[in-house]
Structures are given as structure tokens and as C-alpha cells.
Amino acid sequence: MKPTDSIRTIKGIGEKSEKLFYKLGISTVGELLNFFPREYDIFTPIQPIQSVKEGEVVIIEGSFVTKPHMANVRNLKILSCQIKDTTAQIRVSWFNMPFLMRSLKMGMHYILRGRIVLKNGMLQMTQPKILTREEYSRQLGKMMPVYPLTAGLTNHAVTKAVTAALKGVEWESEFLPAEIRKKYELILHKKAIQTIHFPDSKKEYIIARKRLVFEEFFLFSLALHRMKELKHSKPSSYPVDGDVYDNALLEILPYELTSGQKKAWEEIKKDMQSGKVMNRLIQGDVGSGKTVIAMLALAAIAKSGHQGAIMVPTEVLAKQHYEEFCAYLEPLGIRIGLLTGSMTAVQKRKMYQKTADQEVDILVGTHALIQEKVEYANLALIVTDEQHRFGVRQRELFSEKGKDPHMLVMSATPIPRTLAIILYGDLDVSVIDVLPANRLPIKNCAVGTNYRPQAYRFMEKEVREGHQVYIICPMVEESENTEAENVLDYTNSLKDMMPPSIRIEYLHGKLKPAQKNEIMASFAAHQIDILVSTTVIEVGINVPNATVMMIENAERFGLAQLHQLRGRVGRGSAQSYCIFMAGNASKETMERLRIIEGSNDGFYVAREDLKLRGPGDLFGIRQSGELFFKLADIYQDANELRQANEAAASYTQQDVSLLCKKYDGLRQKLQEYTGEVYL
Ligand code: ADP
Ligand code: MG
């Protein structure tokens, strides 16, 4: 079978499992092979029973000291007995496997592998697998893949399908040129894919991962370099006359721009006046005031008689920007439009029409802005806010909506400048490195759950003083279905604990966009005092009157994400607070939380987090989970990123379109990667 063949060509995959795989975004053999394990289940050596701990999957060896006993609990048949080695004894139990009753013998020796759980105050092993000595020695040290799953599809089924695919696939020829593989010591793609699914050892895994990370970065870098070459010093059809930069807007702003904002704005003006196309990244920590910079640029474009558009990752944020822009720009005679996915077909059609007829000057919206149906009359400036939530391809699609429009990209991801230059290689970079002067630094504390009553009292006090509060609800590990329930339960018990005069509402990802917008709007209008929410509020939301943020289960988030969440407070002149509530107070958890407790600087936090985790921590919480890489992590794999960029640069210099025959494979791969026709 070929990588492009349907997964139905794999033996054992029928109509039903095809649908399930489809839910995971897998429809071809190649996609299945590129569906990497989330982590590995490692066969560790036999442990003395005395040393097993709750939550671990372990292997124990011993003999049964009681007869297997069968109990019926509701609809379950539970089989249990006691197993003993020289150090201790422990209960083991199986559900609905009554047939074991006959085969398990008292006094005989068994090797069992299973999870240790705490039940009625006692440790026990549940649902263990019985291993023969041969199985045990064969699998010892092996890493078994654990895939991210969807309901109805087991890990076993995915493993089986991957095994079959690896066996039957006709591999395409290697696409990385040999000189690159040699220089950076990279194994073949084929070998790396085989190994990433079934590594024999951690060492092999690392080598395979290195190759795949490199290729991911390399293709990314090639695409960027090519974009840069092609765009380089392109003349712009939308020059902006210096006269339009009147100070009308600056005058009605209720504050003066910070030095960082002024500098960024000067750079933008210069770009747009230069007669060439602007391609600029504005990088600034959360709360540094990027929105107003976008607004100034868009206003200048509108005043010049052109159109501009700003794309944001969520509906709530789109609405927020839209309202702010209306408030400032409509009095100046600029017409603003809103376009989001949740609007009715009629509303959308109207907005398409207005956009095509240039009856709106600035369009604010979500991904809806790059849908096929949207046609712009005269698109001269595109802005993407929170760029880390979009892919390079989406940025390109947006750009293709106009005829070489100016481009402004905004990001708060705290990446060091050296990395930013690589990751945004096609852009010039402006950094806003100061926060508005009226801000007091956020006061942080990392605490255990026993502090919760005190935290609630503190919130009450802040609410009484006219401020507002966010609580980020505890995360549920498994399915998203329970997310809503969880937020609801938390909100209900919070209501019981707070005086009835305090207005509490909740927000989660499963609500309809219209409901989300409504709740955010009433929070912004101070009709809600405490908002219990999942991380949906992470991105960009701006309610300066909110002064307290409490994050439950803070240990489950990456520090960069905690920093983004924290950025929802400290946006006004009042003192703000962030409470990181740790669900477990283990040493590692507290050590990590101390970093963010000790600093409000996103760059510092990201750097320290990396140091703490060290490059050896392969399955740690991904720092940059939202950045568009599948396997690679820009912090952990910064070295590969640099190498891949260097390699890509040398290729692009030689031959920008990779026309040379020997690059056939690479060119094709790049075409798949960027999803475009590439000559
Ligand atoms: P971010 O960079 O995170 O997108 P925003 O643009 O949302 O930040 O700005 C955060 C808050 O700071 C907003 O309430 C905005 O009005 C305010 N703000 C922006 N610039 C200044 C300034 N120069 N002085 C005071 N407040 C400012
Ligand atoms: Mg923002």
C-alpha cells in the first residue's frame, strides 16, 4: 500500500473503525504513520510489593496466598485474591473475567503487571495482565506506544493498525538530502517512523525523535525562507501617505503611548510609507498594549481609502476588539464590520456584501475572515492577533485575500529574540518591552488547597471593593464531556460558600458562541463579579477591572500557559493578584510554581521552566503546545531549530525554488507541507 492510500487498505480496518480514525484526523496510511504516540508505557523490572505506590503501573512477582474469590457487585463480577512476595502482600482484582477463576492456582508463582490503586484505604492492583517469564524477559525495557485516543478506539486497535501499516507500506524514497543527514547525524525517515512507534530503548527513541523534529523544523524553515525570498522588497500598491497619521486618534486615547508602543508605531509608519510591502511582527508580553498599535495601523489604512482586517483566534476576542474599535474609530468616520463563524447565514451574507462593496473599512473577525466566500474590495493591511494560535499557512491564506497587502502579526509568546527571528523568519520584528506605567506589578502566591477558604474570603473583600475575579476551574483529565459538568459543579459549590449578593457565572468551551459572548459582555460590563471558567478566557480577553485570578490545579498547566492566564489581570491601575492553587504540593510542583510566583516576566518564566525541566524531560508538559509543531518543541529542541534553519537558509540561497532535479523528493514534501502548488 501507498502512504496516500485510504486506511481501509489496512487489514482489520472496516467502515466502523475508519470513522473513528477519521475523528483523529487520520484517513490515509501516511497519516496513520504520522500519528505519534503521546507517551510510552515502559516495562520496568519486577518490584518488591512493599515498594509499590498508588497510581503506578508495576510488575510484581509472587504466589497467591488465598483462594480466588468471586463477588457480584451490581453488574460486575469481581475476582480477587492476595498475592505475596518476600516483602509484603497485596490484593489483586479482575473485573468481568470469571474464567480466570479456574486457571488461578493457590501457591503457584505469577508475574503480574497492573496499576496500583487505593481502595478503602488499601493499595491494590487492578486488572493485571498475567505474564509468562518469556513475555516478561522479552518485553523488559521495551517502550509500548500509548496513543491519544477517541471514544470507541482502543490503544490496542491503534497499535495493531500501525503495526500493519508499517509492515505493508511502500516507503517513499528519502527526501532529506544525504549531505544534510550526514552533517546533522540524522537517521532515515523510514527508520525514524518505525522507531517512534516502537522504540526498543530510550536511546533509540531519542535518535528517532531528533530526526523527526529536525525534518519538521526544516520544512517549516524552508517554507519561511521561500516566503521571505518571494516577498522580499516587493513594491506595495498601498502606500500610506504621511498626512493620514494625524493625531486625532492619539488625542482621544485616554492614555499616552508607552515608549515601546511609540517605537513600534514609528516602525510601522515607516514601513507603510516606504512604498514596499510591510511584513512585521509585534512582539510584546501580555498586557503590553498591542491592540492599540493594530488599531492605529488599521485606522491609517482606512483613512487612506483602503481596507484592513484583523483576525483573532476566538469569537469572544473578536467581539471585544470590534467594540473597542467602534468606540474609538466610528467617531472618526471609519466603518467597522464584524465577521465570525457563529453569525447567521443572512448576517454573514450581508457582511460579505459590505466587504466586497467597501462599505466597511475595517473588518474584525475569526477564521471566518479567510473563508472562500469572503472577498475584499481593496484589502491593504492584514493583522493577525495571537499569531501563535494560527499556522503559517493561515497567515498566507489571509494574505492571499488581497494583492500583496501589508502584514502585521502580533504575538505574546515569550520567545527569546534569537528564536523569534527564526520562527518568524519572514518578518521584521518590533518588540514592546515595557508595560504601561500605571500598572502595579501583580502580586502572586503559590499555595496548597488548604488555603482555599482564605482565598475565597480575599475574593469577597475585593468584590466588595468593586473589583472582579476570575477562577480557572480545575481541569478534568479525561474527556471533554465532563468539562462542562465540572465547571457547573464548581460554580454551584462556590455559590454556596459566597454571600448571595455576589454574582457568580460560569464559562466553558461547550457553550454556544453567542452564550459565551453574552457572558463575557456582562463580565466586561461588571454585571458579574466572579467568573468561573476553563482556559477559554486565556486568549486576549481584556477586563481591566478584574483584579484577582485564581487558578485551580495550577500544577497541570505549563508555566507559559499560566503566564498567559495571569495576563488577564493586572490590566488596569488597581493592584492585582494571582493565586496559583496546587492540587498536589509535591516538591516538583512547588518548585515549578515558585518560578512563576517569583516573576511577572514571561521571558524569564519560560527560560527558568526550561532549565528546571532540562532537555531530558521528554514528556513534560509542553511549553509551547499552541505553536504549530507536532512533535517539536521550540524550547526543548532549540538546538535542532537552529540547525534546521541554518540548513534551510543554505538551500534557499543556492536555489530558491529547489528546481534542481536532485531535490525532487524534498520539493514534493514541501509542497505537501505548505499545501500549495509549488513549482
Ligand atoms: P495585549 O498586549 O495583551 O494585547 P492590550 O492591548 O489588550 O494588551 O492592552 C491591555 C490594556 O492596557 C488595555 O486595557 C489597554 O487599554 C491598556 N493600555 C494599552 N496601552 C496603554 C498605555 N500606553 N497606557 C495605559 N494603558 C494602556
Ligand atoms: Mg491582545
Question: Quick summary of this structure?
Answer:
A seven-stranded parallel sheet has the order 11-12-10-13-14-9-15, with helices on both faces. It starts with 14 loop residues before the first helix and ends in a 5-residue tail after the last helix.
Describe this structure as you would to a colleague:
With 679 residues, the chain is an alpha/beta fold. Among the domains are: 69 residues, Nucleic acid-binding proteins (OB fold (Dihydrolipoamide Acetyltransferase, E2P), Beta Barrel), CATH 2.40.50; 177 residues, Rossmann fold (3-Layer(aba) Sandwich); 157 residues, 3-Layer(aba) Sandwich (Rossmann fold). Helices cover 39% and strands 18% of the residues. The chain has 23 helices and 21 strands. Strands 11-12-10-13-14-9-15 form a 7-stranded parallel sheet, with helices on both faces. A 6-stranded parallel sheet has the order 16-21-20-17-19-18, sandwiched between helices. Strand 20, helix 19 and strand 21 form a beta-alpha-beta unit. The longest helix is centred in the first third of the chain and has 30 residues. The structure holds adenosine-5'-diphosphate and magnesium ion (MG). Adenosine-5'-diphosphate (ADP) binds next to helix 11.
